[in-house]
Amino acid sequence: MGNDRIEQRIIMLAMIAASISAYMGYTVLLILGLYKIFKSKPLGMNFICKKNGLLCSIIVYLFFQLIQTQYTFYGLQAFTLIILQIVAYITIRDNFKTQEEYGDLINILVLGSIMISVIGIVQYFYLDPSVVPKSWIDKTVYNIQIRVYSTMYNPNVLGAYLVSMICITVTAIEEMRNRLFHVISLCLCSICLIFTYSRAALLALAVATVVLTALKKNKRYIIYGMIILILALMIDGSNYTQRMSPELASKDSSIGYRLEIYKAAMNIIQDHALFGTGLNTMQVYIDQYSTQIKAPVFHGHNLFLHTLAETGFIGFSLLLVMLGKAIKNAIEMVIYSQNKGIKTIGISMSMFYMTLLIQGITDAVVFAPQYAIFVWTMMAISDGIWMKLEKENRQHRWWRYEG
């Protein structure tokens, strides 16, 4: 078995492990990183710097962040996890070469989504409501008893993950060889999403269905969205009606909670505009900058404010460049590839980035380690395919085949 195949198998194992436990997933990625360092020359850094100056810039800046922060332990935690995510990204981007190999990886992600969804659905029926944090429920406004979180540790993070997987499966079903497998994933992810009661995730899914209907000129996506709405009302109509009510939302403690976090984050940005406070330090600084929030808050509940607060203007600029490049690559896959399967993956990834940005307005779940491992994997799939598309100059039969 060649090195590429070994690394592919390790990545697939990491995705399955991460579906069960984020810690297990990162442990497997650590093994992958050590393996790549062992076989790389010189100094084991070739695999990081190869073909991507932007990644090198990000790593250098993150290392600077680690040095300049007052909270080195927190920074080291985040730095280590990001390096492992980058190792996974580069491995997928460089070592998966054929449409079949990417299809196998997507099937592994779909299998993981089935596992995560089943765990979440079981939680809905069997989890003791007393163990659910009160801040997730807001019983002064709603009558919700349970919000599931599966192996993602938080219902909003789970909601973001489920929407990203739905974007992949709902657009790819007609192109996949094993459609039943993907249909099962779509059904389970959709049901589990309802049980999260995540408004941001449901809004992102609603926008995605409308956009997909316009792009593919097919009513099936609107029909799917209507089915989700009907299921939500059938399962817990009164609470969903309340939760979507603007009047009740204004009384929701989570709204005031977020506004207070935004206020603290903007004050942090004002004091640390250029370099930020350092990776993984919001849990310390929000408490210092807010007179109302005392519990640890691990992210700024807004993708852009969080990035500015922790990494400053430089880190924020690097994030915009990275996201802009990834979105551009996904769109070019749709425009330039004449292969229906590759074009479909491009549409799926474009929808994924769109929903990520929508949810980024009210959450920064992309920085949650349990979700970030999948975010980097999806980015690697779209970037890897785009790089091969560019290399072949849209002439190789792998891209042009219409099967």
Automatic annotation (TrEMBL):
Domain of life: Bacteria
Membrane topology of this protein: Multi-pass membrane protein
GO MF annotation, one: ligase activity
InterPro entries: O-antigen_ligase-rel_domated, WaaL-like
UniProt KW keywords: Ligase, Membrane, Transmembrane, Transmembrane helix
Major localization listed first in the record, in broad terms: membrane
Subcellular location: Membrane
GO cellular component, one term: membrane
Domain O-antigen ligase-related: from-to ranges: 185-320
Sequence intervals crossing the membrane: 12-35, 47-67, 73-92, 104-126, 157-174, 186-215, 221-240, 303-323, 344-362, 368-387
PANTHER family noted in UniProt: LIPOPOLYSACCHARIDE BIOSYNTHESIS PROTEIN PA4999-RELATED, TEICHURONIC ACID BIOSYNTHESIS PROTEIN TUAE
Protein name: O-antigen ligase
Organism listed in the record: Anaerosolibacter carboniphilus
